[in-house]
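Q: Predict the bound structure with NAP.
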Amino acid sequence: MKHTILVTGASSGIGLLVANKLHQEGYQVIGTSRSPEKHQAKLPFKLLAVDLNDDRSIASLGKQLFSEIKTLDVLINNAGYLVNGLAEETPVELGKQQFETNFWGTIKLTNELLPYFRRQKHGKIITLGSLLGLVGLPYVAYYAASKHALEGYFKSLRFELNQFNIKVVMLEPMSFKTSIGESGTVAEGNIRDYDLFRKKITSYTKSTFDKAPEPAPVVAALLKAVKEKNPTFSYPVGKGSSIILLLQHFAYKIFEKSILKSINASK
Ligand SMILES: NC(=O)c1ccc[n+]([C@@H]2O[C@H](COP(=O)([O-])OP(=O)(O)OC[C@H]3O[C@@H](n4cnc5c(N)ncnc54)[C@H](OP(=O)(O)O)[C@@H]3O)[C@@H](O)[C@H]2O)c1
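A: Predicted complex:
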């Protein structure tokens, strides 16, 4: 019997690709979206309604899900979005919303399903972090902070769930082509001191999105994490991610200089 897998944010991007791929491979896949009615007709797997910003919708997920399935083998915490903007120019309210969805929403949804996992005495929780959960870059301070927070939380949770045979994994992709650039929020700044840097970083960000590769490697890494019996905690994904991590840990000044050089070269 192939496993049963819940993929949050399965209407678009990485979630949609991985849910389709798992379905093709014979897994029983259930996805989520804030508006399942908009997407269900095009999808070969069932979509449930979940909004990570709505406690009531998260609180009803367990019952809804287990009326469809008997056991849940894997939860893929994929849903999330991106707030772009220079840190000082981003209203704190936007930062709080970023945490409400990416961090708190993901934690609340995980907590809703943990009693079922504990009862089963097995399960796997795979969360989409980001390389920006391990590395900081300009123009994404709140996004990076929300992903760093997930790293810390799930690193601790992994120890606590080990006794129940529940594995905890983070995936940390670099930039890949999805809707995340368009579906997110941009904080438009107006502090004059930042004018030149803002111009360069927005152009650098746009060219990073334009040049980003298709997300096939993320899907492959997710499949690997799903199939691995004893997965490790961290799965960085993307060309050059191991070099970036190496520089960040052992040669931070070189890492910083190379990032600033690329931003300054942007027009
Ligand atoms: N693309 C990248 O370069 C990249 C890199 C590193 C990490 N990631 C992470 O990968 C995950 C997927 O991103 P993506 O690039 O595939 O983006 P995407 O194409 O914009 O897809 C985002 C998904 O999240 C769902 N979602 C957004 N806000 C939600 C909310 N409040 N409640 C419930 N669902 C919500 C959306 O579903 P509905 O709109 O249907 O509700 C959608 O299915 C995110 O966690 C992102 O941070 C992406």
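A: The first strand starts at residue 4 and ends at 7.
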